[in-house]
Design a protein that fits this description.
about 425 residues, Growth Hormone, Chain: A
Length: about 425
């Protein structure tokens, strides 16, 4: 790859900064809404059925529109797609303010369904425009910033959301999330995004179906892209187990109090910051396949250390490494797909990437929940760590040709 720009230099790109700050604010708002949804359902009913319906409302649109969204991202103006998606999601979450009784929860299910559907269009469009708004040397740090915003919002947003919802109530949280979608839409409106070239203007069902199959065939026919998706899915399994079992493990095995758990989030965030800072220097000195492999191997080792740590300080050290490797691996893998894929197919490939990450995370969380009861939380963590470790070793081998391929596909993009 060409010499990489630093994170600070990348943020000076006005288009990338607008996208990044809008996403960070919007994703923090999403954490407020997540906490508020759980409290709202808990306050209105003692049944767990609404939670199952919520999960279906979130998952079904990803199954139906996950790949289809990418087809339209490659047909429509991507800036318009993102703005409309944000506006519709803001209106949908605002509708939840109308709920006051259990028999009105159908409004919540519908709102979540709409938001998940719009997300199936928004995120492929977001990832597809990044190569259009930054020069090639900024592509990796740009992806690092975007990936970090999602994880940082998750870590800090949940803590802030818990306090805010407790003080101001669920209505404030839903209204706040709606406002943050508006902030994101305004930020995207200020961006200058080049129009998509070579896009199809035919709108028949057969044409759209053929374009969907074309995108899947493009991935299938590229061994490098297929391997990237495979490595991404396996590497996500380890982090998925952390999400579902991490806090329970610390409580059961180490007796860590709720107050001390906040340090875990802080150290994960510290790792993400470090990962973003060192990634550019690493990729300028080490081949891409080795960088990805080292990150995933380190993630696997950190999960194992997390599971076997005899004390909390060692757990925190493992959390830093996990934060570093998650941001680094995701950023590099997404950068690979953006570089290797022509712009007119980028939306469909990014849809496939999003589906792989979502499916792998969900599968890991479900499987870890089952295995945690069957074989124990600690053994489940060690197993996830070992699988992740070996996938990192495999990545070094199966991604050997990626550096050469990326250099072949690189085309300069003027910075704005």
């Amino acid at each position: 790859m060409a010499t990489q720009a630093g994170l600070a230099d990348t943020l000076r790109n006005k288009n990338l900064f607008a996208l990044w700050i809008g996403q960070l604010i919007s994703q923090i708002g999403d954490q407020f809404a997540t906490i508020a949804v759980l409290l709202l359902v808990n306050n209105l009913t003692a049944s767990t059925l609404p939670l199952a319906i919520l999960a279906l409302s979130l998952t079904i649109p990803q199954i139906i529109f996950g790949l289809l969204g990418g087809v339209f991202v490659d047909r429509w103006d991507r800036k318009t797609v993102m703005i409309v998606s944000d506006v519709v999601r803001g209106l949908a979450i605002s509708a939840v303010l109308l709920i006051h009784r259990a028999d009105q929860l159908y409004i919540l299910y519908l709102a979540i369904f709409i938001m998940s559907t719009m997300g199936a269009f928004f995120y492929p469009a977001r990832n597809a425009v990044i190569p259009n708004i930054v020069p090639e040397r900024m592509l990796l740090p740009a992806n690092t910033l975007v990936q970090s915003s999602q994880l940082l919002a998750l870590l800090f947003g949940i803590s802030a959301a818990g306090l805010a919802v407790g003080w101001l109530g669920t209505s404030f949280a839903f209204a706040f999330d709606a406002v943050t979608f508006g902030v994101s839409a305004i930020a995207i409106l200020t961006m200058s995004i080049p129009p998509l070239t070579n896009r199809s203007t035919q709108t028949s069902v057969r044409t759209i179906w053929n374009q969907l199959l074309e995108g899947l065939r493009y991935i299938k026919d590229s061994s490098l892209l297929t391997n990237v998706l495979l490595i991404t899915s396996v590497a996500t399994l380890g982090f998925g187990s952390m999400l579902i079992l991490g806090l329970k493990y610390l409580d059961l095995e180490l007796g860590v109090s709720a107050q001390r758990l906040s340090f875990l989030y802080l150290f994960l965030a510290l790792g993400m910051v470090i990962g973003g800072a060192v990634l550019n220097h690493l990729t300028s000195r080490v081949r891409i396949n080795v960088t990805v492999g080292m990150c995933i191997v380190s993630l696997g080792l950190a999960i194992i250390v997390f599971a076997l740590a005899p004390n909390y300080p060692l757990v925190l050290a493992a959390a830093v490494i996990i934060g570093v490797t998650i941001v680094a691996a995701r950023s590099v893998l997404i950068t690979i797909t953006q570089t290797l894929v022509p712009d007119e197919k980028c939306g469909r490939v990014q849809s496939a990437v999003n589906m792989v990450i979502n499916a792998s995370t969900s599968a890991a969380m479900a499987l870890s929940g089952v295995l945690g009861d069957l074989i124990g939380v600690q053994v489940t963590f060690v197993t996830a760590g070992v699988i992740t470790l070996f996938s990192g070793v495999a990545a070094i081998s199966v991604l050997q040709g990626v550096t050469t391929a990326m250099r072949t596909h690189e085309e300069p993009v003027e910075s704005s």
